[in-house]
Amino acid sequence: MKIFGHEWIESEHFYEVKEQSEIAKTPANALLKLASLNDSLTLAKYCHSNGLRYAIEIQTIEEAIFANILGATYLLSSKKLAKELMPIAQNYLFDTQVLAYIKKDEIEEMAKAGVDGVVIVYR
């Protein structure tokens, strides 16, 4: 399981980008973070065609399927959607990993559900 944002471990940083021009301002091999597929389709296609690693926020299983086809490294979703998505991702052998936004005390729940990873959200 991958864990992003927990104070006990170092984790890779997401670089949020909204436009192609912002990519040049990120470090080499940066993990880009894109908004929803509806808002970032052109950017996702650019990342895919240029071999760039990116995470994208999804709201539906259909968006997850398209994001996987478009070469996303990670899907960022609610924990409920992540649990629903995992069997589909495993059945279709997604290359993309599913990450759930969670609170710090929900790691065990996501591990038991077989979710690929989590992003800790402090609110």
General description of the model:
- Helices cover 37% and strands 24% of the residues.
- It contains five helices and seven strands; from the N terminus they run ββαβαβαβαβαβ.
- The mean pLDDT is 95.
- The protein has helices at 20-23, 37-49, 61-69, 79-91, 107-112; strands spanning 2-4, 14-16, 31-34, 54-57, 74-78, 97-102, 117-120.
- Strands 1-7-6-5-4-3-2 form a seven-stranded parallel sheet.
- With 123 residues, the protein is an alpha/beta fold.
- α3 (61-69) links the parallel β4 and β5 (74-78).
- The radius of gyration is 14 Å and the shape is globular.
Assigned CATH class: Alpha Beta
| Uncertain regions spanning at least 5 consecutive residues | none
CATH superfamily: Aldolase class I
Number of domains: 1
CATH topology: TIM Barrel
Helical percentage: 25-40%
Task: Enumerate the strands of the largest sheet in spatial order, edge to edge or round the barrel.
Answer: 1-7-6-5-4-3-2
Instruction: Count the DSSP helices.
Output: 5
Q: Note the quaternary state here.
A: single chain
Comma- or semicolon-separated keywords:
123 residues; alpha/beta; TIM Barrel; seven-stranded parallel β-sheet; 5 helices
